[in-house]
Structure formats: structure tokens, C-alpha cells
Write a structure and sequence with these properties.
It is a single chain. With 20 residues, the chain is mainly α. 90% of the residues lie in helices and 0% in strands. The longest helix is centred in the middle third of the chain and has 18 residues. The radius of gyration is 9 Å and the shape is rod-shaped.
Length: 20
């Protein structure tokens, strides 16, 4: 679950950075 969580969290974090 950790590996999958990071995979889903990585793109989300990058998207949030783009929006900010």
C-alpha cells in the first residue's frame, strides 16, 4: 500500500504545486 500510496500521492503533490 505504501508504494501505491506514493505513486498516487506523487502526481497529486506535483499537481498541487502547479496550481499554487
Amino acid at each position: 500500500m505504501d508504494s501505491e500510496d506514493i505513486k498516487f500521492r506523487k502526481p497529486q503533490v506535483l499537481r498541487t504545486s502547479c496550481f499554487e
